[in-house]
Amino acid sequence: MLISVNSLEKSAVVRLLEFLSERKPWFRSLWGIGVVLAMEELYEACAALRQGHLSEAAIKRMASSLQKRVGVHPAFTEAEKQFLRQQVHQVPRADGAAHFGIRELSARVSSDYLTRWGRAFAAGRFTVEHFARSVAAYLLDAGFAGQYLHDFIKARLDAPEPITLPQLCDAIQAEMSASPRREFEVLLAFTTIPALPNGVPPSWLRGAAIIAWLKENGFDTAGVRSPVAIVLRVQARDAIGAAQVARSESDRYAARALIATGAPLNRVPMLWVKGGAAPAPMKEDSRGVGVKELFRGDRVFSADVSQSVDAALELLAHLDGSSAPAAVAGGWGAIEGLLADPSDRATAADNLATLVTCSFPRAELTALSYRAQRTHPEQCTELEGVETNRERCRILARMIIDGRLPEMTSVADQAAIARLKKLFANPARELQTIRETIGDSFHRLYRQRNLILHGGRLDSVALTASLRTVAKLAGAGMDRIVHGHHVQNLRPLELVAKANLALALVSREAPLECVDLLESS
After folding, report:
1. N or C: which end of the chain has fewer CB atoms below 10 A?
2. Confidence of residue 2 (pLDDT cuts 50, 70, 90)
3. What digits encode the pLDDT tens for the residues 44-71?
4. Are residues 256 and 328 part of one domain?
5. Among the three residues 178, 198, 216, which one is the final residue of a domain in this structure?
6. Taxonomically, which superkingdom (predicted)?
7. Would you call 178 exposed, middle or buried from its count of C-beta atoms within 10 A (0-12, 13-18, 19+)?
8. By C-alpha distance, which of 364, 363, 362, 402 is closest to 382?
9. When comparing pLDDT for 251 and 358, which is higher?
């Protein structure tokens, strides 16, 4: 049971749980990586610069973004902030003192990061959004599965023993220490024996041995039919994460088998993690790339699609479910093909971030409008009979600005309304902050693409986090591009130009313009 000193603490925990859920829509998802991983990423990037895989401009951008984040971060002391400024005053050179200094600061802060946040809470030096985004990103970056963390936190909140938010931070920090990356055994079974030139290796399990392994580890064997299986040994912090790692390894095997033999690898659709409570599905949920305009406009089978947009959609599909290298290459290929300036491919990241930013107010307001009408039908009669989302959003925005919207029952919705109030009070500044955050994630995807295609790096420290953060955002941006193409008859960069102008002109004097940032003038 959480002991809340004020409503902000309750909102902070609810928002943290929201970020740890994989089912939330893009406008309530986690858009960036944590500050500790950002330091580790910069440390890695300095070595990549020396090898010629990343540009000096890319390193400068990373250093500038990191310095800005650390400068307002309550988990860093003033001395640590000053130390970082000194290390990134110039581009750190690989194996130099500044280069190693970044690594040392990362290790120092990581050792008690959550405890530092607990102290910040106790001193009142926090905001709901900063805390929730920072802590959720840090935990996911560290290798925990979101569902595992969600269950861990909920168990402590639901326990009869009272717990404060600083105590919860300490409990999660202790769990990190108690659950380092360790080896898990995962059973990968096949429905048919794979074609192997030298036959099945002796280390594989066969028939009865498979059933024995499952029974020994507490799994139900009903319906399990497999002639052979492998026991994979993977590194993870928890059983759910172990299943995720095993899926990736299994996908690599499947890709090799397909190009080696021309035949698919027939795998049982479940994985069994030793120590897990139940089998895990072989097919992992998608990364959340959604281009809903194709369905809303009944365009899935339409022939009236530009070749460039259609090609981008095919590439973007890899971002949703392919292996990490294919997802990065395909995802960035889709973005660059539509949105890059001919003289600078990296501009595609900022252009897509602009489109996604302009989509944010409408997306959040649309969802809230329907929930507000269901929750408070008598007080939200203005929304009755309003069919267009655009007008629904304008009505709800006016109610929020005027303070006429009754309090929502959901703490998550209350927090969303608080964020919208802040946005309407100073739209230019808030939208710029959103654009910078989302832009950082798209630039990270571009750097990952360069590390994979130019450096052959498949083990970058930020590879997994990059895919986790950009997939839903890329889908949201492509959704706007498809809408602009079919409904507004605008090419992608024409839509970007409209979005750039809207962001440049939005002001606190006319906050309702936030609803129409991508509409025709």
Report:
1. C
2. confident
3. 999 999 999 999 999 999 999 999 999 9
4. no
5. 178
6. Bacteria
7. exposed
8. 402
9. 358
